[in-house]
């Protein structure tokens, strides 16, 4: 006969065992529901993270809960995680051409969701042409393409903007092995990656581009819009050619074939004086923060998403393929039922001919990772299905345009554009939690809550000198009423990598502070 005390322990052990089985079953069902099958840029439904708890059971007055529950992360650790990749740059008051710069500075940050972050960012001053270039790049099927584009695209834009005479001087210096004046001054965080094993290949492709411009004497109508479009398309064409000519070292992360078969979207801004050009490819987004005369904030989107939710973009895709394919070109809001963005760099599995793809899959399967496609996409009849031609939007900056937010879709999936502008606007002005409340009628309880909210907002505002960091804090920890819930923020940052992707994507943000006094 089992003694009563031991029997009681057996009941408790059996209860804990049942809880572990329930938890395992829950996680299995989550995976079966499709949360782990995200190919590229999948949308994820909003999830109440605070409401997620593993099952608990009360036995003889004692409550047992799975030990997955963790204590709240201290604020110091939260700040360490959020600020690890933040970067700020203050622009000199003059741009070198005896005119006041229209950009005061920039704040940027990256918060990874993937074990290997697939997002990238870039910022540079054009030294031999005019203006500044800033961009965010959202990779998928790996980070190789986003990395290559973030390093190379601005050079292609610079070459497209330079006059032929300057290009001839550069070519002469290279040919005679003389020093070449730099085209760009980069503004990088020390953690920003740099690929070192493809430099020669990248330079040779860029040199071929400026040699062709010299040969064609392309110096007429050298406007920014045309330069941006030409640079985007030329880089994507070079990515394709490099992969076909040189498959590269299979052990390299940046072999040309890896770059070509992965992909990325891109949102790039060129600012020169009052002229703002946004070149967008995919579903990252650029939004202006506008302060009206009465002090209120409004959001002005100056880029369009290239996906199934854009009716004009959907019609463009359908018009480029035979009517017989209209039911298969876009399926379940994805290109060929697989890819969410309708424009992007790389992704040659949606651009090359079927013969070319089959040859790559048959001869170089060793270079492909286990989760990459090794067969043609379904209903692959009339490629290319994906294009790298950006949509360029032109905007003349006004005094009421205070800042520009560029971000990958990881931010926009969590926050509405108006909320994003509101958070940054209030962070920059500090008016929301400083203005007096006289003339308003409050109960004692409402006043207590208001003071608590202001205290919380003030603490986090003081913590975040970087606007992009402040925005990420709100994106992950917002309580839905304009303040940050430390419990929610702690839980979002504490998620293990295999669960984090269920709740959010990689987030990359660049906030450009505009010099409205000069407009």
UniProtKB/TrEMBL annotation:
Cross-referenced SUPFAM superfamilies: PP2C-like
Catalytic activities: O-phospho-L-seryl-[pyruvate dehydrogenase E1 alpha subunit] + H2O = L-seryl-[pyruvate dehydrogenase E1 alpha subunit] + phosphate
Keywords, comma-separated and alphabetical: Hydrolase, Magnesium, Manganese, Metal-binding, Mitochondrion, Protein phosphatase, Transit peptide
EC number of the protein: 3.1.3.43
Function per UniProt: Mitochondrial enzyme that catalyzes the dephosphorylation and concomitant reactivation of the alpha subunit of the E1 component of the pyruvate dehydrogenase complex (PDC), thereby stimulating the conversion of pyruvate into acetyl-CoA. Acts as a crucial regulator of T cell metabolism and function, with a particular focus on T-helper Th17.
Matching PANTHER family: PROTEIN PHOSPHATASE 2C, SI:CH211-15P9.2 PROTEIN
Hydrolase keyword on record: yes
Protein's UniProt name: [Pyruvate dehydrogenase [acetyl-transferring]]-phosphatase 2, mitochondrial
Family matches, as CDD domains: PP2Cc
Pfam family, one: PP2C
Family affiliation: Belongs to the PP2C family.
Residue ranges of every copy of the PPM-type phosphatase domain listed in the record: 103-514
Lineage: Eukaryota, Metazoa, Chordata, Craniata, Vertebrata
Source species, domain of life: Eukaryota
Transmembrane segments annotated in the record for this chain: none
Protein species of origin: Oncorhynchus mykiss (Rainbow trout)
InterPro entries per record: PP2C, PP2C_BS, PPM-type-like_dom_sf, PPM-type_phosphatase-like_dom
Predominant location category: mitochondrion
GO MF entries: [pyruvate dehydrogenase (acetyl-transferring)]-phosphatase activity; metal ion binding
Cofactor annotation: Mg(2+)
Subcellular location(s) per record: Mitochondrion
One Gene Ontology cellular component: mitochondrion
Gene3D superfamilies tied to this protein: PPM-type phosphatase domain
Enzyme class (EC, first level): hydrolase
Signal sequence annotation: none
